Amino acid sequence: MSKQSGRTVKTALAVFITLSLAVGFTWLGIWQVHRLAWKNDLIARIETRIHAPPSPVPGRAAWAGLEPSDIEYRRVTANGVFLDGEALVKAVTKLGGGFWVIAPFQIEPGVIALVNRGFIPSEARDERRDATGTTITGLIRLTEPEGGFLRANEPGNDRWFSRDVDAIAERMGLDIKTVAPFFLDADAIAPLSDGFPVGGLTVVQFKNNHLVYLITWFALALMALGATVLVVMHANGTNDEDAQEGAVQRR
User: How far from chain centre, in Å, is Cα 135?
Assistant: First the structure.
């Protein structure tokens, strides 16, 4: 293989690599455009839900057909009574570290929803809390199975790091079939005499970095295209030099 042929092969390979990178980065940028549109739509839908007038909690007949994306953060209300028992789930809020108080709320015979009554500080863990109130208004939240980050729930020891509806209901001795497959984050309601639990602390916040990602991918695509142009220009310059050198040698 001649020297010029070897250069041609290397140039072709370099062009193939840089163009492949450009295509790949462009595809990733286009994907992030779609993700950005999806995230903006999600945020708009959730904002509409949390500020909408409350609707009745979905009944037992509807549970099997519920789609998580259709019910999460839906604002609902329910009448009923709190049953005995509670689970304390580790929590960190703007008020500091402590626990969420999860209690069973019977809406009607055979229909129970777990309710996150609100936050208590760690020092209030062993204090008695009367589960009063017959009307609950709040947001539907999806179950959080298996535990928190690197912290598995320990139902046998009543150590909870996530609001796992089935596991908590089973630990409370409830019939799983009668418990809604979601829980309710209660609005701020009149707290007990010690000021706790504090409801209405639901954090509704979604990371939306897709604009930054799409700019990054498209910038990398342009850089790859620029690299392609430089490779081709360098190859043409080298070929011109070879042609001039050959012409001088023939003289």
Answer: 30
Segment among 14-18, 57-61, 192-196, 210-214 with least mean pLDDT: 192-196
From start to end of the chain, where are the E strands? 55-56, 75-79, 81-82, 87-93, 96-108, 111-121, 135-142, 147-148, 151-152, 179-186
The answer to whether the CB of 116 falls within 8 A of the CB of 163 is yes
22 SS3 class: helix
- pTM greater than 0.85 (yes/no): no
Give the span between the Cα atoms of 130 and 169, in whole angstroms. Answer: 19
Q: pLDDT tens digits for 146-168?
A: 777 778 899 999 999 999 999 99
Q: What 8-state DSSP symbol labels residue 160?
A: B
Residue 226 lies in a domain: yes
CB proximity list for 171: less than 8 A, separation 6 or greater: 87, 155, 158
Print the domain residue range for 152.
74-186
Q: Is residue 212 part of a domain?
A: yes
* Greatest distance between any 2 Cα atoms in the chain: 106
C-alpha distances in angstroms, 20 versus 16, 26, 137, 139, 140?
6, 10, 54, 47, 46
**Residues 6 or more apart in contact with residue 185 via CB below 8 angstroms:** 116, 138, 139, 141, 199, 202
Within a domain: 61:
no
Residue 58 lies in a domain: no
Task: Give the closest residue to 138 by CA, choosing from 66, 191, 72, 83.
Answer: 72
C-alpha–C-alpha distance, residues 92 and 69, integer Å: 25
